[in-house]
Amino acid sequence: MKPVKAVYAGTFDPVTNGHIDIIDRASQMFEVLYVTILDNMNKNKMFTLEERLDLLKEATKDYENVIVTSSNKLAVEYAREVGAKVLVRGLRATTDFEYELQMALANQHLADDIDMVFLMTRARHSFISSSTVKEIALHHHTVEDLAPGCVAEALKKKIG
């Protein structure tokens, strides 16, 4: 079996323990995993691109085969650029599946040589989203069980 590179792309505003779970498992499946922040213009972001890159790098520093990057391209275009043959996506619930199915079909249309791999989020992370983490933090509750420590600290500083 030949080595395969993969891309796990998202907004990561901020990175959560659910994301880290997917990164952990995908990093064991692929030779190189590019964790890539894509600029989604449809989302209101709390953290700047630089802040998100720093948080992702800190949260993934122990993974030797994970490369944290950013791109303003489509995920399939970025995957081609780095020689990746797989896009990794996490699924929490059936609502995620409907969105991810649309994205997978669009990606197949654009690049049928790049496959999608879906990893089910572990049950303990199934309710965690970046939006949920931000909402809980905005109401001055701890998010230390929901996000890496560096993110919990960054949220405290950001919210005040």
Automatic annotation (TrEMBL):
It holds the Pfam family CTP_transf_like. It catalyses: (R)-4'-phosphopantetheine + ATP + H(+) = 3'-dephospho-CoA + diphosphate. Its EC number is 2.7.7.3. Belongs to the bacterial CoaD family. The record marks 19 as: Transition state stabilizer. The keyword Signal does not apply. GO terms for cellular component: cytoplasm. Its cofactor is Mg(2+). InterPro entries: Cyt_trans-like, PPAT, Rossmann-like_a/b/a_fold. Homohexamer. CDD domains: PPAT (cd02163). This is Phosphopantetheine adenylyltransferase. Reversibly transfers an adenylyl group from ATP to 4'-phosphopantetheine, yielding dephospho-CoA (dPCoA) and pyrophosphate. The gene is coaD. Transmembrane segments: none annotated. HAMAP family: PPAT_bact. The lineage of its organism: Bacteria, Bacillati, Bacillota, Clostridia, Eubacteriales. Pathway: Cofactor biosynthesis; coenzyme A biosynthesis; CoA from (R)-pantothenate: step 4/5. Residues 7-135 form the Cytidyltransferase-like domain. Its main location: cytoplasm.
